[in-house]
Automatic annotation (TrEMBL):
CDD domains: Glyco_tranf_GTA_type. It comes from viral metagenome. This is Glycosyltransferase 2-like domain-containing protein. InterPro entries: Glyco_trans_2-like, Glycosyltransf_2, Nucleotide-diphossugar_trans. Residues 140-255 form the Glycosyltransferase 2-like domain.
Length: 405
């Protein structure tokens, strides 16, 4: 049976899905179709034969099917989405569905036949892709940092707990500061002494530089083909590095692995988990769908081949330095799902454009499954006291975070 998935915004009124379902009902007369699954744009997907994108082209959903069809609504179309069109195997307009054009059945049947031919001859498609620890290639992890003498301990924790083979990690730290006495040099040297398996390259810079400049210096120092960004004040789960490398090396921009140049050169997340170290607030940042891909990416999750950087360097800016690096090169890109990749921490000292809900919004913190000891560790680094108080949970009251006992 052929599995079709509808991907659309379930929160918005939508009659187009019903029209597309009617088309599939007619198609069942000649094609063995399973019941279509419906996914919201923000929901985790299951792999299917055909993804039908309704109205909004979901770039992150493309690798999750053998073939992708876009139902284009001309009235709601954003010019920012034009860069996504080459990724689709079929294009249908809402007007065609309304008119019930008979040629739609012919083209959809042909698409089903193509999707079946793309199925692997043996085994199954692993999505997300799997990379075993013993197969991990050497990587270069780049961390730009400034004024993080305390919070850089989070980066140390990320590397000490990762399941990626330590002997295959090259960690490049680019630190700038006007006052060399405020730099984390001694702590970084001590980390290297205590973790000799990881090759550490520390590049101190007197004065200030933009984040774009520091990223360029870091990648320039990378000796491995695969480069990952790891910001100094974010949480990267145990499997994060391995998952990201798996997507880059084994994932496809299109599920048809026989396509020439089907693999991506750059992988990243757009949707990411957030946690505010001052208020104890959890959130998920989903950039507006109408924005272009370069305006939606998270630089802190960039995973790429160094050759992609050699073709284009980062701009000399400190905010959204990835936007111009990506724009115009969407054909090289693959979007990773955010699960187990990153929890971005917000605090008084960072410059992220992503924001947790405002203070007047009633929130509930899920703590992203962090154990109590880790919560106490990260809040202390941000200068926030964590106090246990029975079974009651109160967050960020009088500069204290109350955590479950």
């Amino acid at each position: 049976m052929i599995q079709c998935n509808f991907v659309f915004d379930k929160t918005a009124p939508n009659t187009t899905v019903g029209l597309a379902e009617d088309l599939l009902k007619q198609l069942r007369a000649t094609v063995n179709l399973a019941k279509a699954r419906h996914y919201d744009l923000k929901e985790p997907l299951a792999f299917g034969d055909i993804n039908i994108h309704v109205g909004i082209p979901s770039f992150g959903s493309i690798p999750w099917a053998h073939s992708n069809v876009l139902i284009k609504d001309e009235k709601a179309w954003s010019e920012e989405w034009n860069a996504y069109l080459p990724f689709f195997d079929g294009l249908v307009t809402v007007a065609d569905l309304v008119a019930k054009k008979p040629e739609l059945l012919v083209s959809m049947k042909a698409l089903c036949d193509t999707a079946v031919k793309k199925r692997p001859t043996s085994g199954v498609v692993h999505c997300p892709p799997i990379l075993r620890v013993e197969d991990c290639p050497p990587i270069s992890v780049v961390t730009p940092t400034y004024n993080r003498r305390e919070l850089i301990d989070i980066a140390f924790h990320n590397l000490m707990t990762t399941d990626y083979p330590k002997s295959k990690i090259e960690w490049i730290v680019i630190e700038d500061h006007e006052d060399s006495t405020q730099m984390a040099s001694e702590k970084i040297v001590n980390f290297q002494v205590n973790n000799p398996e990881i090759q550490v390259k520390y590049v101190p810079i007197q004065g200030r530089m933009t984040i774009g400049q520091k990223r360029n210096i870091g990648v320039e120092h990378a000796t491995n083909e695969i480069v990952l960004f790891m910001d100094d004040d974010d949480h990267y789960p145990v499997t994060s590095l391995r998952r990201r490398v798996a997507w880059l090396t084994k994932g496809y921009r299109n599920a048809d692995s026989s396509m020439p140049d089907a693999r991506a050169s750059i992988a990243f997340c757009t949707t990411i988990a957030l946690y505010d170290l001052v208020r104890g607030v959890s959130a998920v940042n989903v950039p507006p769908w109408g924005l272009g891909l370069g305006k939606r990416i998270s630089e802190a999750t960039f995973t790429f081949y160094k050759s992609a950087w050699l073709d284009r360097k980062f701009d000399d800016v400190s905010v959204a330095e990835g936007e111009t690096w990506i724009t115009g090169r969407e054909g090289l890109c693959l979007e990773m799902p955010p699960q187990q990749v990153i929890v971005a921490f917000t605090h008084k000292g960072n410059s992220s454009g992503r924001r947790v809900p405002p203070a007047d919004v009633k929130e509930i913190a899920c703590f992203w499954g962090f154990p109590k000891e880790y919560l106490m560790f990260i809040h202390k680094l941000a200068g926030i006291e964590v106090e246990e108080e029975g079974k009651k949970v109160e967050k960020a009251k009088k500069n204290k975070l109350i955590k479950n006992a």
